[in-house]
Amino acid sequence: MFRQILFTQWKWARLPVLAFVLAGFALPLLSAQAFSESYSRFWFAPLFLGQLQSLGAFYPLLAALIGLIMALTAWAADHRGRHVYALSLPIPRWHYTLLRFGAGAVLILLPTLALWLSALIATSLTKLPMGLHAYPTTLAVRFALATLIAFGALFAVSAGTSRAAGIVLGLLAAVVLAQLLFDLFEIKIQIIDAVLYRIYIWPGPLEIFTGHWMLFDV
Hints:
Elements: H1 2-41, H2 45-56, H3 58-80, H4 84-88, H5 93-124, E1 133-134, H6 136-158, H7 162-184, H8 190-200, E2 216-217
Antiparallel strand pairs: 1-2
């Protein structure tokens, strides 16, 4: 049964998955290119590491986007069919949910493997100055964990009704947008800062999305 569910989820999500594979493969190569261009212009390490840090923001964004799309895709057909198919199967509901989650997790591995392969290629083709090191496997593992966390959280939200999922996702988007606007205009609200601190700072659940995502670092 897992094979059939995996096949159906692949059929529904193959276009986004292929797009994510291409994006995951492109990011490390872009990081290597930015490193080479910056290193050719600047001799001072923090300057071109700053270039890489700016590009590194796309890694957690891609991980969150993969988790969101794969979670919504996993439950889209069940929501359209009002879960009649799931309820008609001779297995417990928790077992069906576990199969859906496992199939999504397997599909998430594809862009992660593409990113890891690209990172290995990029680091093998890049000549690093003394004091700098490449972290292709560490970056890929962190990307995989971030993607799985995003997928797991949004999978649980999407398992309910479409309306409930829309409300929760809308609230999350509103919080992120508000934080961006507050940072832009340098507005400090103590309650919001305290809540975000609990979420994004260890041991917060989303701490993995923060910090530096660097393919090359000291």
